[in-house]
């Protein structure tokens, strides 16, 4: 759906009005196009005293085809600023970060990227180090709100012991336009047992992989299917029988397999497992995207609607995943990805059932990620914010505009923004990422 306010804000008259009245001014966000480099410009790297990444960070970015420098020049502008904060062992050391970013921010290009890399506070050697590392979250979230006006983002990556070599796919995602609508987020590597990633083609990282996507006939699900197919995956799309014609059209476009099934049916897990086994023999990526809303305030809620919302978002994904694991169709290197929502983090008036369901998705991820880590399977969630889907058209104007403007980038995201985050989780290089819930919300100004 077209954001008419954004278009108005960028014509000469509208720009004058917006600037004069101090109204939100949504920047034009850069998004990645196939064939483009990951980063169109130079990345400036800095480090706190005692940083543990050193040459490894430079080598990781160089291997991804990203140009880096370690010394700032007054006459140069930079597409991204990356700071190794792993050496910060007390609050006094936080000044190293300020002294790097303060002058460098004046040289940041539009749609730029700020990334801070820290050490997991829970693994800190001392209490003072744990406190200082936890402080990085406030720095990144505040900085993200400062730079969002020009389309830039700020994110934090905590690296657990032994996960230093697994930074590549995460840095590629966060530094590139693929993460245009991801800001103010904290990503944790190495929360669970690490699995060594097999070699893969960076241009088609999912080649040879099979991806199951529920709710794949339209909107976010269709965008996910197209994006994972772009990256080389064979797609199995699932949706309810009522949408089978739309699902078949998307799968025909992608050369994929359709499953028309109600995931809440008692036999759905076995039906789905059989269809996957017959078509491909296994599945590597499972995206539990299907979900519905039956919005009512709690005092007006019908039990049957409550149960349906919860079961589609949480109950059915649990049963389907359990069956795939039981039949050993999902094994080492597998990915399970749930779709939560900022409603599951911050809550939303009139969406008690939906918020409960989407918080349940986060609980599902936290629990399952620990149980399957020994099998080399990762489990994560994406929590979208305001995304421009067909549902937006049905919203009252006031709610729609508030949803768009209440973020650091003053606009809604696109389905491709969620799909790119799914592709990042699915990447073979993301094997150290498990148990995470990352918001794709333009740093919405509600919730954590």
Automatic annotation (TrEMBL):
The record's section on Pfam families has: adh_short_C2
Keyword list (alphabetical) reads: Oxidoreductase
**Superkingdom of this entry's organism?**
Bacteria
Keyword Nucleotide-binding among record annotations: no
Gene Ontology terms for molecular function:
3-oxoacyl-[acyl-carrier-protein] reductase (NADPH) activity
Q: State which Enzyme Commission number(s) the record gives.
A: 1.1.1.100
> Could you tell me which residue ranges the Ketoreductase domain spans?
209-385
| SMART domains the UniProt entry points to | PKS_KR (SM00822)
The record's comment on protein family reads: Belongs to the short-chain dehydrogenases/reductases (SDR) family.
| Name assigned to this protein | 3-oxoacyl-[acyl-carrier protein] reductase
Q: Which organism is it from?
A: Aeromicrobium panaciterrae
């Amino acid at each position: 759906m077209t954001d008419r306010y954004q278009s108005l804000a960028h014509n000469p008259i509208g720009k004058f009005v917006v600037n004069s009245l101090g109204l939100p001014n949504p920047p034009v966000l850069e998004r990645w196009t196939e064939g483009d480099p990951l980063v169109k410009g130079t990345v400036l790297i800095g480090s706190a005293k005692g940083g543990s990444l050193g040459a490894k960070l430079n080598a990781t970015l160089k291997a991804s085809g990203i140009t880096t420098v370690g010394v700032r020049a007054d006459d140069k502008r930079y597409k991204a600023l990356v700071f190794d904060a792993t050496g910060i062992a007390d609050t006094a050391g936080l000044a190293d970060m300020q002294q790097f970013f303060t002058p460098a921010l004046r040289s940041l290009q539009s749609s730029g990227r700020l990334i801070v890399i820290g050490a997991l506070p829970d693994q800190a050697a001392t209490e003072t180090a744990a406190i200082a590392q936890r402080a990085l979250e406030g720095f990144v979230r505040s900085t993200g709100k400062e730079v969002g006006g020009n389309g830039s983002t700020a994110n934090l990556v905590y690296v657990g012991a032994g996960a230093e070599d697994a930074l590549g796919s995460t840095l590629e995602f966060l530094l590139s336009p693929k993460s245009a609508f991801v800001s103010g987020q904290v990503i944790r590597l190495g929360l669970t047992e690490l699995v060594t990633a097999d070699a893969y083609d960076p241009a088609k990282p999912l080649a040879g992989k099979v991806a199951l996507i529920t709710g794949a006939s339209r909107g976010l699900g269709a965008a996910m299917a197209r994006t994972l197919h772009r990256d080389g995956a064979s797609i199995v799309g699932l949706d309810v029988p009522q949408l089978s014609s739309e699902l078949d059209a998307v799968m025909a476009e992608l050369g994929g397999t359709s499953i028309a099934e109600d995931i809440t049916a008692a036999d759905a897990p076995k039906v789905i497992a059989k269809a996957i086994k017959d078509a491909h023999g296994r599945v590597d990526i499972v995206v539990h995207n299907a979900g519905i809303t039956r919005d009512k305030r709690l005092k007006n809620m019908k039990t049957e609607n409550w149960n349906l919302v919860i079961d589609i978002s949480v109950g059915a994904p649990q049963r389907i995943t359990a069956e795939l694991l039981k039949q050993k169709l999902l094994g080492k290197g597998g990915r399970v990805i749930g779709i939560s929502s900022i409603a599951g983090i911050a809550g939303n008036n009139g969406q008690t059932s939906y918020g409960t369901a989407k918080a349940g998705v986060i609980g599902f991820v936290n629990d399952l990620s620990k149980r399957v880590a020994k099998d080399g399977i990762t489990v994560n969630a994406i929590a979208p914010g305001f995304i421009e889907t067909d549902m937006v058209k049905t919203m009252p104007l006031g709610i729609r505009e508030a949803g768009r403007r209440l973020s650091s980038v003053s606009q809604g995201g696109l389905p491709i923004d969620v799909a790119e985050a799914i592709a990042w989780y699915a990447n073979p290089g993301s094997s150290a990422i498990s148990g995470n819930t990352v918001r794709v919300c333009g740093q919405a100004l509600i919730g954590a």
